[in-house]
Amino acid sequence: MSGTALFPYHTVVNETAGRGAWPTVLAVVGRDDGAMKMDIQEMAPGVNRVVLDGRLDAAGTGEIELRFTASLAPADRHAVVDLAAVPFVSSLGIRLLLTVARTLHRRGRKAVILNPQPSVMTVFETVALGTLIPIATDEAEALSLTAT
Q1: Which helix or strand (DSSP H or E) is residue 136 part of?
Q2: All domains in the chain, ordered by first residue
Q3: What confidence tens digit (pLDDT) does each residue in 6-19 have?
Q4: CA distance 103 to 2
Q5: pTM score of the predicted model
Q6: CA atoms of 89 and 7, how far apart (whole Å)
Q7: CA-to-CA distance for 50 and 75, rounded, in angstroms?
Q8: What gap in Å lies between CA 91 and CA 89, rounded to an integer?
């Protein structure tokens, strides 16, 4: 029994426990609606644009964390992280963004967040993320923030 309309995530269930109306969920394995997507493009000379698509929750962060960090941290380039297609960011997603931003900062490079959705921006404002990572609403502003 996995991935029904009632469960938005692919689940592993214990068929013998929880004999009531709902099965007992043992672990969330992955998402039925598709994996977190990540695409890296050159935005300008010396600047990579990382486009994320999906929820940056525990599952989504786990899916991209290694690739995200390995692609951006050693690069001798600034990073603009485009969150236009990310409807949700959890504390793990915030930690991922902060880790890469700190690594880039130590190497004399910058990370900029581009175009977060309103619900994500509310979370960023609540935790004052903009004081640690610049947040831009358009590409021109993001590029100017990498230059300063």
Answers
A1: strand 135-136
A2: 1-33 (no CATH), 37-147 (3.30.750.24)
A3: 334 333 344 444 44
A4: 39
A5: 0.76
A6: 20
A7: 13
A8: 7
